Amino acid sequence: MIDIHSHILPGIDDGALSMSETIEMIEIARATGTTALVASPHADTQYSYEPERIEELLAEARAQAGPGIALVRGCDFHLMLSNIEAALKNPSRYTIGGKCYVLMELSDMLIFPNTGAIWTELEAAGMRIILTHPERNPLLRQRLELIEEWVAQGRYMQVTAQSLLGVFGPKAYEFAVRLLDRGLVHFLASDGHNVRHRPPRLDQGFEWVARKYSPRLAQLLCVEHPRAVLAGEPLDLSEFPPTREKRGLMERILRRGQ
Ligand SMILES: [Fe+2]
User: Fold this and answer.
1) From the CA of 5, how far away is ligand 1's center (Å)?
2) Helix orientation angle between 115-124 and 81-89, rounded to the nearest 10 degrees
3) What separation in Å is there between the alpha carbon of 250 and the centre of ligand 1?
4) Judging by DSSP bridges, how do beta strands 187-189 and 156-160 pair with one another?
5) Which three-class secondary structure state does DSSP give residue 220?
6) N or C end: fewer C-beta atoms under 10 angstroms in the chain?
7) Per-residue pLDDT tens over the stretch 228-254
8) How far apart, in whole angstroms, are the C-alpha atoms of residue 168 and residue 106?
9) 144: which DSSP letter?
10) Span from the CA of 26 to the centroid of ligand 1 (angstroms)
């Protein structure tokens, strides 16, 4: 699996507290089936985003973590004026692996009415938008039609794997399911922040989607779509969303015939 969203690097945001926690988080990811992990520190009013410092920390983490897992630079991009101006000048400063996809976080307090127009500008500069965890945003939970509109316009949605396990409460869980039911989720990611409460693992979310929807959908959300992100290629949505398995229905029909 490929995890496109995590806060594993120490001392630059509210993620890992030390390099030893970073290494522990990488070990958790590797042990639970992640082969590539995007370190996406916050770029917001609280935390400044410095790609050069992030590359240094990544090099240190790679040296200590050893083989079996790729570590890639990304950014948890908060939609605010200074970020927008900087991204328009230099998109690869913020994109995953310096390619074209950017993780976009919206405020819990206010959704700018011109959000779509701002994204259009960023897209014209070569960026592709992945909106992070809409299920955890109380404003977006009231605006399903807005998410539908954005997806129809070619934006992608990333749900936090732990939301499907109920970690962020029933409202986040229920909204994540509504989005999945409507084929509005393109990625699962851990958004891992630490070792204990928010570990960088995708395996349980993968299994949940495989069981409740289909193994194919789990594969698309955790492997194939993220792989396209790392390559900087368009998502192949030709079979998306895959049809939900009808095994339960078939079993009921067969049983009725007995
Ligand atoms: Fe995040």
Assistant:
1) 6
2) 20
3) 40
4) parallel
5) helix
6) C
7) 999 999 999 998 999 876 555 665 566
8) 17
9) H
10) 16
Query: How many domains are contained in the chain?
Result: 1
Q: How many angstroms separate the CA atoms of 151 and 146, rounded?
A: 9
Q: Which two tokens stand for residue 209?
A: 């989607």
**Rounded to two decimals, what is the model's pTM?**
0.94
Per the CB < 8 A criterion, the answer to whether 228 and 236 are in contact is: yes
Peptide bond into 241 cis (omega under 30): yes
* Ligand 1 centroid, distance to 78 Cα (angstroms): 10
Name the residue among 108, 36, 46, 24 with its Cα closest to residue 74: 36
In the reported structure, the alpha carbon of residue 253 is separated from the centroid of ligand 1 by a whole-number distance in angstroms of 44
CA of 117 to the centre of ligand 1 (A): 23
CB 201 within 8 A of CB 32: yes
> CATH number for the domain including 216?
3.20.20.140
Structural domain of 146: 2-257
For residue 160, report the distance from its CA to the centre of ligand 1, in Å.
Answer: 9
Instruction: Please tell me the distance between residue 190's alpha carbon and the centre of ligand 1 in angstroms.
Output: 9
Could you tell me the distance, in angstroms and rounded to a whole number, from the CA of residue 48 to the centre of ligand 1? 14
Distance 6 CA to ligand 1 centre (A): 6
Name the residue type at position 206: F
- Find out whether 96 and 233 touch, Cβ atoms under 8 Å: no
Given a contact cutoff of 8 angstroms between Cβ atoms, the answer to whether 151 and 157 are in contact is yes
